[in-house]
Amino acid sequence: MRDKLRRPSPAMVVAVIALIAAIGGTAYAGVKIGKNAVKSNQIAANAVTNSELKNIKVNPLVKVTAAASQAAASQNVLAQRGALTVYGKCFVEGPVVRAVVYLKSSEAGAVLDSDADNQSGNGTEPIDGYVNPGEAESDNEIENSASAAVNDADDGDDEHFWAARDNTAISGSVLSFAKQGSPVAGDGPYGAGNRCLFQAHVLGVG
């Protein structure tokens, strides 16, 4: 007479499921890519493009010759998203060469938070209201501390900022450097003459 097959107990069912999960987990771990396992020479050309990194922008170093005044200085775009633009100006102001970074908005009602200026809408226009088209640049500064005397060079602080307009927002940090004449250490990356350097690292959405 043959013995009847006994139905497995609930404890046995749980044990079998746990065993399968453990085996599966071990197999998965065996094919995981380790840290730093993928080298730059193993990535095909154009495999990682701006579509994969569309929210991050690290701009190249911008070199600018100083203009005679702030009004005459060109706007050197460091980052742009939607209505918001971050730009730098290099100009002579009295006895110094200055490198200043500003925010502008092509649409009214943008907000800015930086160490140099705060435009949050909590105040009276134009100084403490919003960032609007056509406002004085000095009302919307992000970084304003690079100022080089004769035959000297100076760097501004690594300024962090945040700005937004409707569904667009940008944040990041900007760097600025200014040089006047010929410093004792030489011209370095500036080149000859009165020059400024700018760079921005910006994250944006919208």
Task: Explain the overall architecture.
- This protein has 206 residues and is mostly beta strands.
- The chain has one domain.
- It is 11% helix and 40% strand.
- The protein contains one helix and twelve strands, in the order H-E-E-E-E-E-E-E-E-E-E-E-E.
- The strands form two sheets. Strands 1, 2, 6, 7, 9, 10, 11 and 12 form an eight-stranded antiparallel beta sheet that branches.
- A hairpin with a 2-residue loop joins strand 10 and strand 11.
- The N and C termini lie far apart (76 Å).
- About 3% of the residues have low confidence.
Short description:
The protein has one domain. Helix content is 11%, strand content 40%.
Distance between the amino and carboxyl termini: 76 Å
- Looking at how many chains there are and whether they match, the oligomeric state comes to single chain
Structural shape? globular
* Secondary-structure element pattern, one letter each: HEEEEEEEEEEEE
Count of strand segments:
12
| Count of all domains | 1
Tell me the helix content.
Answer: 10-25%
Which band does the percent of strand residues land in? 35-45%
User: What is the typical, i.e. mean, pLDDT?
Assistant: 79
Structural class: mainly beta
Query: Which blocks of ≥5 consecutive residues have pLDDT under 50?
Result: 25-31
The total of helices stands at 1
The Cα radius of gyration reads 28 Å
Largest sheet: 8 strands, antiparallel
